Request: fold
Amino acid sequence: MIWKGVIPAVTTPFTPTLSVDHAFLAKHLERMLEAGVKAFVMLGSLGEGATLTSEEKVTILETAVKTVGQRAAIVAGVPSLSTTEAVHLAKRAEAVGCQGLMVLPPYVYKGDARETEAHYRAVLEATKLDCLLYNNPVAYGTDVLPEQMLALSKDHANLKAVKESSGDARRFASIKALLGDRLALFVGMDDLAMEGFLMGTEGWIAGLVNALPEESVRLLELVQAGRTKEAFELYAWFLPLLRLDTHVKFVQYIKLVQQEVNLGSERVRPPRLELVGEERERVLALIRGSLAARPHIH
Reply:
């Protein structure tokens, strides 16, 4: 894999009966390919991985691999309640043709540093695929420090990248200082994208790209071209929408943006429920106000 650029954390589309909508998923991946993305992360938190059965996860990966072929890489998230389950999914992902894995801590149980590291090692040892370490202490309750990333990278050559979502902008510099270019560093929170780019990250595992793919790709392109003034102008417009990614209902919010731009549906699986009442109107007002001022992307 080439770990660079804007990589969507793909939402999982559902039919009115809440089965996985594979036909729309294929169209959605094509749409983002047209905008210039080079890889996709499937089955992440934004993809509602915790509500999918094991077989649904595999069929989603099969659809993604079949759809994009050699045009982009498919990175499989391995959401799980147990290490055994994560290892099993990692092997299935490799078997169906994924090019990479996003390895995250188990759901529910918040292990200490030793337990979390053991979980990562078990998955890394179970596959030959390139792996992206996902650090999100806000969501998962465990914080993988740069020193632990260094230790894991020394022992596992297939650990190639890290998605950093601690919310601490200083962490980008800490990781770079300790690991140099050993791991490709990705911004993992939408509303830290610009800060991460300016700290030299290789790319962005992005959420709002599901609804606004051209703007997401353009933001990184502007920074990489040294056109920071234009990048800041685009980021200033984008930021209210990007902040939707950091709320507990980020799945509902981002899917609502997708629906507003005709790139998806707001349907989610329980325990999540679609937004209603004042909350929905408030979020819609923010979305529609931002879209009304949407810049023209060349």
In short: The mean pLDDT is 96. The domain at 5-227 is CATH 3.20.20.70 (TIM Barrel). The first helix runs from residue 22 to 35. Residues 222 and 230 are 7 Å apart (CA to CA).
